[in-house]
Amino acid sequence: MIAVLYACVIYPPALRDVLMWLAVVVAYEPRWTEEIHAEWMRNVLEDRPDVTPEQLERTRRLMDQVSPKCLVSGYETRIPSLQLPDVNDRHVLAAAIEAGATVIVTFNLSDFPRAALEPYGIRALAPDPFLEMLYKQNSPRFLQGLQRHRTSLKNPSKTTDEYIDALISQGLKRTGHLLQAHKAEI
Fold first, then answer.
1. How confident is the model at residue 68 (pLDDT cuts 50, 70, 90)?
2. What pLDDT digit, counting tens, does each position of 93-103 carry?
3. Do the strands 2-5 and 103-105 form a parallel or antiparallel pair, or are they unpaired?
4. Which 3-state string (H, E, C) describes the chain?
5. 121 and 144: one domain?
6. Domain shared by 108 and 145, yes or no
């Protein structure tokens, strides 16, 4: 499955890390654009004076290494013909079409109405239902990705229960509840 990650789901570091680790184990194929990178990075710098541009550039480089096709280009000519409630979001849909994505992962579902996406075979999903869908499609790979993420945490490290609680506290309630049955695997 190919999914375009919008800036709002890349912005929170914990969610970004979950999504990247799932991509590392090929639970799905993530896509984004330079414009999406610019948006999430600009917002982090505005909201977090303790974070430097150099730190974000490092994160950006690491993200771009997760998947060989993650960075979408050549979508710009599609933008003028697309209709969305916010014209500034058309680049995301254009990138999804260009990438052959079936999903746009976003918190801003109202910005990507079903009627506008259906002709392209794309749907918008919030992160929690997206993660639940990945779990249902390939639970061993999904659990492997989360296990690798949890064990990568060093400062501080997290027990399985702490990890699940952290996911739930980030609004990933469905995902957290699914993981309750798989504590030994993560």
1. confident
2. 999 999 999 99
3. parallel
4. CEEEECHHHHCCHHHHHHHHHHHHCCCCEEEECHHHHHHHHHHHHHHCCCCCHHHHHHHHHHHHCCCCCCECCCCHHHHHHCCCCCHHHHHHHHHHHHHCCCEEECCCHHHCCHHHHHHHCCEEECHHHHHHHHHHHCHHHHHHHHHHHHHHCCCCCCCHHHHHHHHHHCCCHHHHHHHHHHHHHC
5. no
6. no
Residues 73 and 51 in one domain: yes
Clarify whether residues 103 and 164 are in a common domain.
no
Segments forming the whole domain that contains residue 169:
132-185
- Tell me the pLDDT tens digit for each residue of 103-130: 999 999 999 999 999 999 999 999 999 9
| pLDDT reported for residue 96 | 98
Q: Record the tokens describing residue 123, joined without a space.
A: 């749907």
Co-location of 101 and 170 in the same domain: no
- How far is it, in rounded angstroms, from Cα 130 to Cα 94? 20
Please tell me the pTM assigned to this model. Answer: 0.94
